[in-house]
Specification:
Elements: H1 3-32, H2 39-48, H3 68-89, H4 99-121, E1 126-127, E2 137-140, E3 143-146, H5 147-169, H6 171-181, H7 183-188, H8 193-219, E4 221-222, H9 226-241, H10 246-266, H11 275-289
Antiparallel strand pairs: 1-4, 2-3
Helix pairs in contact: 1-5, 1-6, 1-8, 1-9, 1-10, 2-3, 2-4, 2-8, 2-9, 3-8, 5-6, 6-8, 9-10, 10-11
Length: 304
């Protein structure tokens, strides 16, 4: 087995997951100056939407029974729907509030969603089988790589490309970019606030649904708390990338994935259980050296 291609694919696949999650968070921050900590619960919600409510250890498929050509758009729409609903019910009422108040509200919303899932599905993690054939290894330049990893890499690049076109070529995209620069001025110039914010939440929720499908296919487990860790890493990626920078969030997501995989391979066996400590130490060092983010523009100003 060729170790270099294996490391490259592992890093790109893990980084792709982080990049999509970070992109969902950066979209909301760009238009509302809000770090939405309920994003992890959007991911868990989309995972549990695949199965029948039960406290059993083995899940029975609900939406997960549908063929992929139907399941994928339905789950993406469901993720967009819960994100838009949370914006309408919670965050729209707090648009003029302090950013700290909005952030705390996102924490509270996350707990509400999590406890609703606990009430319906129970706290026991559940075994779930979604597209198990995607974990079949194939040979790529001498490396044995699960097909799902290649799909993650291709999907991430496709999502980023489509989003870039949307932001550059459509009116809503132009308004989102204007809002990210200066939301108050953009509104004075005629930017439709409700359309921009709703669109950002819809895209963010769809990203959460995409991450949910990838995670549950990889792990084969549905857990109410499964979105927490990915949310933490995605938030770190948005900070390292430069808060409000969509390309920076994507680049930082891939960077964190790459560093994580390299550390796992390079550290001595006894030190590998503490990989995250080394990773977050590097995060601290990077922010000490460049607190505005590694990929923020030279003219970027602090947002918080």
């Amino acid at each position: 087995m060729n170790a270099v291609p294996q490391l490259f694919v592992d890093a790109a696949a893990l980084g792709g997951i982080y990049a999509m999650a970070a992109l969902g968070i950066a979209l909301i921050f760009g238009v509302m100056n809000l770090v939405n900590f309920a994003h992890g619960e959007y991911i868990a919600f989309c995972v549990f939407a695949l199965i029948v409510p039960s406290s059993d250890a083995v899940a029975v498929m609900f939406l997960g029974k549908a063929p992929a050509i139907l399941l994928i758009p339905v789950l993406l729409a469901l993720g967009a729907l819960i994100a838009v609903a949370s914006e309408y019910v919670v965050f729209r009422q707090l648009r003029n509030a302090d950013p700290v108040a909005m952030m705390i509200s996102s924490f509270a919303l996350g707990f509400v969603i999590q406890n609703a899932l606990l009430a319906v599905y129970g706290s026991r993690p559940k075994a779930i089988s979604l597209w198990p054939d995607l974990n079949t290894p194939i040979s790529v330049v001498g490396a044995s790589v699960p097909l799902l990893q290649l799909i993650v890499i291709i999907t991430t690049l496709l999502v980023v490309s489509v989003l870039a076109l949307l932001l550059k070529k459509t009116r809503v995209g132009l308004e989102m970019r204007a809002a990210a620069e200066n939301f108050t001025m953009a509104r004075l110039l005629g930017v439709r606030a409700n359309v921009v914010i709703t669109g950002a939440f819809a895209l963010s929720g769809a990203m959460a649904a995409a991450v949910a499908m990838i995670m549950v296919t990889q792990t084969g487990v549905a857990d109410v708390r499964m979105g927490g860790q990915i949310m933490l890493v995605a938030f770190i990626a948005t900070v390292i990338g430069g808060l409000g920078s969509l390309p920076g969030a994507v680049a930082a997501g891939f960077l964190i994935g790459a560093v994580s995989v390299v550390l796992q391979a390079a550290l001595p066996l006894d030190a590998r259980p503490f990989r995250d400590a080394f990773l977050y130490t590097l995060v601290i060092v990077s922010l000490l050296l460049r607190p505005q983010g590694l990929f923020a523009s030279a003219s970027a100003k602090p947002r918080v």
